[in-house]
Write a structure and sequence with these properties.
Layout: E1 3-8, E2 11-26, E3 38-46, E4 49-54, H1 61-69, E5 74-83, E6 89-100, H2 106-115, E7 118-123, E8 128-133, H3 140-147, E9 153-161, E10 165-166, H4 204-211, E11 220-225, E12 243-244, H5 262-270, E13 286-291, H6 297-309, E14 314-317, E15 319-320, H7 330-342, E16 350-354, E17 372-378, E18 396-399, E19 406-409, E20 417-418, E21 424-425, E22 437-440, H8 443-460, H9 466-475, H10 501-513, E23 521-522, E24 544-551, H11 554-568, E25 572-579, E26 582-592, H12 595-607, E27 613-616
Parallel strand pairs: 11-13, 11-14, 12-13, 14-16, 16-17, 17-18, 23-24
Antiparallel strand pairs: 1-2, 2-4, 2-5, 3-4, 5-6, 6-8, 6-9, 7-8, 10-15, 19-22, 20-21, 24-26, 24-27, 25-26
Helix pairs in contact: 4-8, 4-10, 5-8, 6-7, 8-9, 8-10, 9-10
Length: 621
């Protein structure tokens, strides 16, 4: 089996040629018209090619492909590859990202391009170009490999596409969580005897009440996925500027039973409130379906650039990869950064990725991007969902399965979960809730739920930047799980905690009105016992500090003071006051002569994931 080593992303890929699959571009889309040379179609669209197995009749894959290339209905035929240690097919799109060494002139670059019959698509800088192969060029992977050997070329990376994982929890034997408890958990599931934990939800009902609305119709959520049923009654009235990456048109690919994932994902974020069925977290938001997930650099650029150019506010992605062969290279990273900084007229698109369902100690490589909100999953018992990937990049968790499933929209062509009996089932408990819905879960469900909450935040305050929305989402969470699992306010399992839509909307409204941060009376911490050594001095009513919380139990004050003093090496000041007829304790870190010094400390505390704000000590004395 032929092997090649190429540059890809941040490392190298060792590729071996598939002995059964090839990629074709043909003048006919009808599979029946290709029956004389195609054994079966494996993928309808991968990198712009139909991936098929050929009728080889004892011949090698090379000979079979050469014969097929000579057919009038075949425009392009190419080999399919596998990365070493991976079972995911890879195909070269034909584009090659080339970076020349510094000082290589355009004339010298042209000589290199002519040598391999390459055509420039786009010049990105003096030494970076995007080129594509022509009919006279060798295989793009071979071209990139040969280019990499030339002294004038610093980097030659062929654009590759492969299937990405969809983060839906699919195993029929796993406990799934359900219906609308993720919006408002009352402790039980209607129609069942199953007990769930009251309050283990995203507080969406409370956020709606605070807003006095179900969000804004001016907020656009883009969902990048496959299998959108845009005729579903919960989605069809909301579709805005759809786009299909596979056919490069607004006409979405539908009806393939292998692709149904996008429909339930979208419904969790924004299913319309129409008096029947389910409702999403942001029922009034507009829906921009981007169909065609792709590992390809070019497709990644296109999907995120399309969102920016067509008015998406939020981008929800319940897919990705944890395969180390396919980590994120600079081209994909730059595409995501561009959307996160240039979108929304410079305020930035809010981008969310699922952490993944692999029970790993690192997250989906897309979710690890610094401009992304990485969403894990919690359960209907307010516990960690064991499949949800962990890591320092986890931003937040949102309610999903692991105990009882979410109820979500079902694509009309969804065949459901096939059990050994051959009976297709859509509901964990076997209780039929109709043909339009199914039980759903995984980080595939938690991510669009968090996206819907982001839409509510923007509905409250549309002037917020992407960074501010992320900060609000993270700083208003509920810390679930054991306190010992958090360090500096953040956990590898839970991130900053389980999302709380009501607190997030309240903070967005506060920032809109530029009000001072309200006093938050924190509950008693059960571990507030032990020996504490401290020195009490009266502090003058002057200067500036950074307030980190308000407590009603002095035991909590001592615990927090010990942690904060150790972490930030600053004196701790406690302001004793009255709130609602009860004694409360405001905890302030640092004592400075100027507000600028307090702001510097505030940035450090905020970076540690602790909600805080600079405060004027003269107003507290």
């Amino acid at each position: 089996m032929s092997k090649l080593t190429i540059k890809s992303g941040k490392g190298e890929l060792n590729l071996k040629k598939s002995q059964s699959l090839v990629g074709l571009k043909t003048t006919t889309e009808n599979p029946a018209e290709k029956e004389d040379y195609v054994e079966s179609q494996v993928f309808q669209n991968l990198g712009g090619f139909q991936v098929v197995s050929l009728k080889k009749e004892g011949e090698t894959i090379d000979n079979s492909l050469d014969k097929v290339r000579m057919r009038e209905d075949v425009e392009v035929g190419t080999h399919v590859y596998y990365a070493e240690g991976s079972n995911k097919p890879l195909i070269a799109t034909g584009d090659i990202y080339i970076t020349f060494e510094d000082g290589v002139s355009e004339k010298e670059q042209s000589i290199v391009l002519e040598e391999y019959h390459l055509e420039i698509i786009e010049r990105r800088s003096e030494n970076r170009i995007l080129a594509k192969v022509t009919p006279q060029s060798p295989n793009p992977i071979k071209v990139a490999n040969m280019l990499q050997q030339i002294s004038l070329v610093k980097l030659a990376e062929p654009d590759l596409d492969t299937m990405l994982d969809e983060y839906e929890f699919r195993e029929p034997t796993d406990d799934l969580i359900g219906q609308q408890w993720h919006l408002n958990n009352k402790g039980s599931i209607p129609g069942t005897n199953y007990h769930i934990r009251q309050g283990a939800d995203a507080k969406v009902y409370d956020a709606w009440r605070r807003l006095g609305a179900l969000g804004s119709e001016r907020t656009v959520i883009a969902v990048i996925d496959n299998g959108f049923d845009i005729n579903h009654p919960d989605l069809r009235t909301k579709v805005f500027r759809p786009f299909d990456l596979w056919n490069q048109s607004p006409n979405l690919s539908i009806g393939d039973p292998r692709f149904t994932h996008g429909t339930p994902c979208a419904s969790v974020a924004l299913a319309v409130s129409n008096g029947r069925g389910i409702v999403g977290a942001a029922p009034n938001a507009m829906f921009m379906p981007i169909s065609g997930t792709s590992f390809s650099n070019r497709a990644t650029e296109q999907m995120f650039d399309y969102c920016v150019e067509n008015g998406a506010d939020i981008i929800s992605c319940s897919w990705g990869t944890t395969d180390p062969n396919f980590n994120l290279g600079s081209i994909k990273s730059e595409a995501i950064t561009r959307a996160a900084t240039k979108g929304r007229g410079g305020k930035g698109c809010i981008i969310l990725f699922a952490t993944g369902n692999d029970d790993l100690d690192f997250v989906n490589f897309y979710a690890a991007h610094p401009d992304v909100i990485a969403v894990g999953a919690s359960t209907s018992q307010d516990t960690y969902a064991s499949y949800s990937n962990r890591g320092r990049e986890v931003s937040v968790v949102a309610p999903s399965n692991g105990d009882w499933p979410i109820l979500a929209a079902r694509a009309s062509w969804d065949e459901g979960i096939s059990w050994e009996t051959g009976v297709y089932k859509f509901y964990r408990d076997g209780n039929d809730r109709g043909p339009l819905y199914k039980h759903f879960g995984g980080t595939s469900s938690s991510t669009p739920l968090a996206a819907g909450v982001c839409a509510l935040i923007l509905s409250a305050n549309p002037d917020l930047t992407a960074r501010e929305v992320r900060d609000i989402l993270q700083s208003t969470t509920d810390k679930i799980g054991a306190p010992s699992e958090y360090s500096g306010g953040r956990s590898a399992k839970y991130g900053f905690g389980r999302i709380n839509a009501d607190r997030a909307v309240a903070e967005a409204l506060r920032r809109l009105d530029k009000q001072p941060e309200p006093a938050e009376v924190k509950e008693t911490i059960s571990s507030g016992q032990g020996l504490f050594r401290f020195d009490v001095q009266r502090h003058p009513s002057s200067g500036w500090g950074v307030q980190v919380g308000v407590y009603k139990d002095y035991g909590n004050v001592l615990i927090q003071a010990e942690k904060l003093q150790s972490q930030f090496k600053q004196p701790i000041i406690v302001n004793i006051n009255e709130l609602g007829g009860a004694t409360v304790y405001k905890v302030i870190v640092g004592a400075f002569d100027s507000v600028s010094e307090a702001k510097q400390l505030h940035e450090k505390i905020k970076a540690a994931g602790i909600s805080s704000f600079p405060t004027d000590l003269s107003k507290l004395g």
